[in-house]
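To close the chapter, one final illustration. This time we ask the reader to focus less on the individual chains and more on the assembly as a whole: which components sit near each other, and how the overall shape emerges from the parts.
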Amino acid sequence: MSCDYVALSNPGVQLLQPYQAGKPVEELERELGLDEIVKLASNENPIGPSPQVVAAVESGLAGLTRYPDSNGFSLKQRLASRFAVSPQQLTLGNGSNDLLEIVARTFLREGTEAIYSQYGFIVYPLVTRACGAQGVEVPAQEYGHDLQAMADAITDKTRVIFLANPNNPTGTHFSNQAFDAFMARVPDSVIIVLDEAYSEYAAAIDTPQGLQQLSRYPNLIVTRTFSKAYGLAALRVGFAVANPVITDLLNRVRQPFNVSSLAQLAACAALDDEAYLQRTVAVNAAGYQQLTVALDALQVDYIPSVANFITLDLKQDALPVYQALLHEGVIVRPLAVYGLPRHLRVTIGTEAENLRFVAALKKVYS
Ligand SMILES: *Cc1c(COP(=O)(O)O)cnc(C)c1O
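The assembled structure is written out below.
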């Protein structure tokens, strides 16, 4: 090629590696000619979609020629009443990933810094660098966020701090007290993104529920998603909640039609199906129990998790084990890109899926 397009791209982009997603089932089918594959690689909901959601999506098919409601009126109304916030506090996203990027594009640029934790969600450095800002990674404490060290890392260039609670890929969480002590040290000029992609699984433990903290902190943005416990990963829908001034800024950057009409209909239906959410959380709790008992019996170490996945410490290069599991038709997630080359993350599945995983692990690793 006559032109060096890489050199022409933004310096932050030159440093990026594309996000590595969990291996799709179809890809493994093509590669190995296997069927009955179990995918426990992307923290998806294992129980299948809510029938109410399926019906809502079907009801929207006749409207495919129309653009979606750019302002998401109905979904915002439902969210506002469900979570006791106002529609002026809500930004809808094409998944919460979209919202993380919107926050970065709103507040980060060259010469500014964003802070996140070692072993934090990999999208934080991605969106930070894409905006030309400097990422500041703070060493983890027992695989989780070291909030005091993160507060210590604040400089006058800090614009955003990304916190995942519970954290992916480690399943760790922080307490209410740790969060309060942290927030007491953060100036109002630093935006705190509290990414609660897994909060539905952790509702019963001592950890901050961000939506209840918003009235205390004008600089807080809480992001939530329908991809995990609500079971809508394919449709791409999430939301951010913040004060109305910040929300207005986010909505200036947001693409006008970033959430499809089918996704909006599905999210409304999902909010109405409380039984589905309860069943999801119950299946997950039983699966955590099932898997940890089996891992203990196999003497495999893992990081205790409050989310819908468990990260195993294999104490050896995990890639050969990952590959061997693929040959058994079980897809999990290698974590070398997170700086955890000896770990594998397994999503908690149905009882049958968990059994398949345990049998495969027993066969390939012992
Ligand atoms: C899965 C995940 C998300 C977002 O997923 P979306 O499908 O884009 O909503 C955000 N944060 C964390 C920590 C996640 O694990």
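The domain at 51-272 is CATH 3.40.640.10 (Aspartate Aminotransferase; domain 2). The chain has a mean pLDDT of 96. With these observations in hand, you are ready for the problems at the end of the chapter.
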